[in-house]
Amino acid sequence: MSTDIRWKRIRVLVTGQCNYRCPFCHNEGQKKDSQSTNMSLDEFKTLIDYLKDKSIIELAISGGEPFIHPQIVEMIQYACLNLSCDVSCATNLSLIKPEQIAQLSNTRVKFNIQYPYTEKEKFSRSTGVGDVNKINYNINLVKAAGIELGLNTVVQNIDPDAMSKLIFFALAKQVPLKLLPQIGGKESDKYKYWVFPMIRKYAVSERDKGTGAIRWIITDGKKQTSVLYIDSPCFSKDIETCRNFGELRIHPGLKTQTCISGSLKDSLDFTETDDVVTAKLNELWNTFKTC
Ligand SMILES: C[S@@+](CC[C@H](N)C(=O)[O-])C[C@H]1O[C@@H](n2cnc3c(N)ncnc32)[C@H](O)[C@@H]1O
Ligand code: SF4
Questions:
Q1: CA 187, 89, 75 angle in degrees (round to 5)?
Q2: Which of 11, 14, 15, 18 to mutate to test the pocket of ligand 2 (most atoms within 8 A of CB)?
Q3: Are the C-beta atoms of 117 and 169 separated by less than 8 Å?
Q4: What are the pLDDT digits (tens) for 141-168?
Q5: Which ligand is nearest to the CA of 22?
């Protein structure tokens, strides 16, 4: 039995490329250029094979836009088959094809869909090229296929009208809504002061998850869903909460990154024994003590 890793959440960035142009995008700490490489299927599978007997909570697949990767379906299927943890995929849902939805319908993947606004004009401005009607259509296809999904909204400015529409949309569709105040935004740490009262008007329960996130169950009397607000530890440089959340990013080339704004570290070398790789990852955990 090999030793376990301290990191409980792994975020794999399968590509740096994206078809959207969201002005707020941190691109998961990757360089924003069209030359960005994809993670190879072999790299991805080797990583999953290593993680098989580790007690991780979640493997989150992200990018860039994961559905730009020609082998994304195979990657998701491989992760679901070989890991026992949650498997999620952050996607803008603009490129997914009906046949890919069908192929993924018998996996346990959860889609976290980047959904900035319900309004056509604002959605298009916030994504550069996105069409909210097309995304709503794809959301219906994904739901009908029985794939779990949630909406991820980056809160970019003070816009109670847009927030109210989002809350109603999430309730009407009964899909969980995750609110992410923009990392790198000037006033992001203060958005909670106008967002929380809006959520609390519909809340039947509220729980501080202790990971920098607050979760509500909301209802309009007929329908019910959840709202999660990520009060990012980045805002207060709260390294303890960040370590509790403990997300390790793995970039194409199997390069590691402990903090979204930090530099890339060495590549993982899976020609080494399992114990040597684990020791390297645990060293990254042990030395991750400052922002
Ligand atoms: C970088 S995207 C990559 C995956 C996919 N293209 C998408 O948009 O979901 C992953 C997540 O990061 C979020 N995100 C991007 N920039 C952000 C920022 N500055 N602050 C907070 N969240 C951000 C996006 O909304 C999305 O939910
Ligand atoms: S869709 Fe995702 S990766 Fe692409 S620009 Fe928007 S947030 Fe960034």
A1: 145
A2: 18
A3: no
A4: 999 999 999 999 999 999 999 999 999 9
A5: 2
